[in-house]
Design a protein that fits this description.
By secondary structure, the chain is an alpha/beta fold. The chain is 38% helix and 19% strand. It has an eight-stranded mixed β-sheet with strand order 5-4-3-2-1-6-8-7, with helices on both faces. Helix 11 (297-321) crosses helix 13. The longest helix has 25 residues, at 297-321. It binds adenosine monophosphate.
């Protein structure tokens, strides 16, 4: 069965068509600038050249219509007609406390996702538009929602509660939810396979280091803590998000700079992180590494502060699990930057970690990058959220 995986952002839409049985990628692509001038679709059937179509896309329904047209096109298409797409898997960012696992999308589920809009105002409405567009264009095709928050729903109360009046949790469900769950789940399960151990017997720390970044502690096959919170703003220093700060800074800066709460939130989400810390040098770690290597203060302070925060979370989660068997790196930075992995791991000697330089220099595959005598293993596991969504979708629709 072919599964269409859809990841809708506010003005973008990423898709992959995956054969759920062989797990082969059949085609993939991206619609950009939806609803904005200059919108385009980049479509790539596996093994063939990319096709870029610059065409107006007023909304997500038009974007999905174009995607379906590309997939069924007589010359560059990969399926004869839409009946060859057995199901659609949607990435949904926030499932609140309602969704601890993936689910078949019904009208009730759409309502429950809508109820979570307040918790993810930038993401959930876009995800819902994607669902509505697919429903309109492929009304008979089953759809499954796969939630970024679901994997973290196993966290115990002591990990998800904040030190706030409890009534905020009771009334508004203010608590830690965590994100990137599909990636943390995929990577931790794959790590167990690479280590040749049972998932349920392991204590793992997953560092998903990309433009958005989060760490999770996975003990005996269950997430017991994660660094992102009510929203994806908490935790590690990210591309443009601040991560953890003293909440009193908000009031302090509001007074100093005469900014409103909304303006401060924009600063924390879009102008902070490594971008802000490097005095706007870049949010891309390749530029920051280059700056570090040139001996520039901006690159040095940014890379070191980022690495320190990751190391601190690893220490905290080692304590939370009373030990750790393996630390896994994934996502854009985690998978590609041997430099950052080295910076983090060089601070973890107390865990009996020695990096194997040759292994650490490799890319694009599952790797153990510690020497055989290291007591704690370090792995690089390329994440594959689309495949994880296709697997979840297939498991639900084949029932
Ligand atoms: P993601 O959000 O997972 O797509 O990751 C994107 C981030 O990965 C970018 O901001 C880059 O800073 C980082 N990245 C990608 N490739 C490399 C690389 N070769 N070296 C360092 N950082 C990289």
């Amino acid at each position: 069965m072919n599964i269409l995986v859809i990841n809708c952002g506010s003005s973008s839409l990423k898709f992959q068509l995956i054969d759920a049985v062989t797990e082969e990628l059949i085609a993939k692509g991206l619609c950009e600038r939806i609803g904005i001038e200059g919108s385009q679709l980049v479509y790539q059937p596996t093994g063939k050249d990319k096709i870029t179509t610059v065409t107006p896309m007023e909304d997500h329904t038009q974007a999905i219509r174009l995607v379906l047209k590309s997939l069924t096109d007589e010359t560059s298409g990969v399926v004869k007609d839409l009946s060859e797409i057995g199901a659609v898997g949607h990435r949904i960012v926030h499932g609140g406390e309602k969704f601890a696992s993936s689910t078949l999308i019904t009208d009730e589920v759409v309502q429950a996702i809508t109820d979570c809009n307040e918790l993810a105002p930038l993401h959930n409405p876009a995800n819902l538009i994607g669902i509505a567009a697919c429903k309109e264009l492929m009304p008979e095709t089953p759809m499954v929602g796969v939630f970024d928050t679901a994997f973290h729903q196993t966290m115990p109360q002591e990990a998800y509660l904040y030190g706030l009046p409890y009534e905020y949790y009771e009334k508004y469900k203010v608590r830690r939810y965590g994100f990137h769950g599909t990636s943390h789940s995929y990577v931790s399960k794959r790590a167990a396979e690479v280590l040749g151990k049972k998932y349920e017997d392991l204590k793992l720390i997953v560092c998903h280091l990309g433009n958005g970044a989060s760490v999770s502690a996975v003990k005996n096959g269950k997430c017991i803590d994660t660094s992102m919170g009510l929203t994806p703003l908490e935790g590690l220093i990210m591309g443009t998000r601040s991560g953890d700060i003293d909440p009193a800074i908000i009031e302090f800066i509001a007074h100093k700079e005469g900014k409103s709460i909304d303006e401060i939130m924009t600063v924390l989400n879009k102008k902070s992180g490594v971008l802000g810390l490097s005095s706007n040098l870049s949010s891309d770690f390749r530029d920051l590494q280059a700056s570090y290597e040139k001996g520039e203060d901006a690159g040095i302070r940014t890379m070191e502060t980022f690495a320190y925060r990751v190391t601190k979370y690893i220490g905290a989660y080692t304590a939370a699990m009373n030990g750790v068997d393996a630390i896994c790196f994934t996502a854009g930075l985690g998978e590609n930057s041997s430099f950052m992995r080295d910076m983090v791991c060089s601070r973890l000697g107390y865990l009996g970690i020695t990096l194997d330089e040759e292994q650490n220099a490799k890319r694009g595959e599952d790797l153990v990058i510690t020497t055989p005598d290291s007591t704690t293993k370090v792995l690089v596991i390329p994440t594959n959220e689309e495949l994880a969504i296709a697997r979840e979708t297939f498991a639900i629709v084949k029932k």
